[in-house]
Amino acid sequence: MRLAVLTCLIMLGGLCGGAPQALAGTKVLVTTRSYDVVGTTGAALVEAMNRKGPKHGFMTRAIADTGYVVNWKLDVDRTDGVCRLRGADGTMELTYTFPRLASPPKPELERRWRRFLAGVHAHERHHGRIAEAMMRATDKSIAGLKLADNWFCTATHREARRRIDAVYA
Question: How far is Cα 91 from Cα 130, in angstroms, rounded to an integer?
């Protein structure tokens, strides 16, 4: 669903001759966490990851995880009965969680572990790139927003929040 909304927003921007200039107030804060796993074989390491990995749903665990929290601060200005979005500062806190070997493995297991972990890192970084693309799409969707509104610009705030929520739905 998120990907469909993102695709529609990008296509709409392209069809309209480009969206208004995106606001430059977005930033991404990246944090990497790890959890320790112990094992002398590949199967033992998989079992340890299934026991200690980040929660994925109610009863299951994942090998690794990418999580994000997005916050937007909107600056709306009212002039001559029209409310304009002057600025939108978006902050995304992106958190990666990966397994880490707690004890030195045998050389053969270490080689296989590094190859496995490289694939896990690539997979999770892809999730991070999708989240960052959603942030850029949100920024473009609210750039240049203006509405005839009341004294407190409530409809403009509401429309900006609706557009933000549509990207992350």
Answer: 15
